[in-house]
Task: structure prediction
Amino acid sequence: MTPAAPAAAGRALPHPARDEIRLEGVLHALSDPMRLRIVRELAADGGELTCSDFDLPVTKSTTTHHFRVLRESGVIRQTYRGTAKMNGLRDDDLDDLFPGLLDSLLAAAARQAARLGG
Result:
């Protein structure tokens, strides 16, 4: 894993380089309903959101775990901006590596949410 873009000293988080992102890691990360929810919210926003922007029905430590799995699989990029940890989709990397995958998964998740009323 390579370090993130320069951040406050000692606050850079490790991210996989584009060529280190593996399909099975991405699919595993997106197989969890909470992580898929995070990705859907990031995609809907189209920019970056802080961790506190997400209202997940899980503990803070579980939320932290979900963000770490998404970051380590290459689905999101996390950077510190002051004291806030910003989260953004690595959609360009994912689209280059796996064309159409993210769009297909997001569309399928939206259809499922509509079908299940969530």
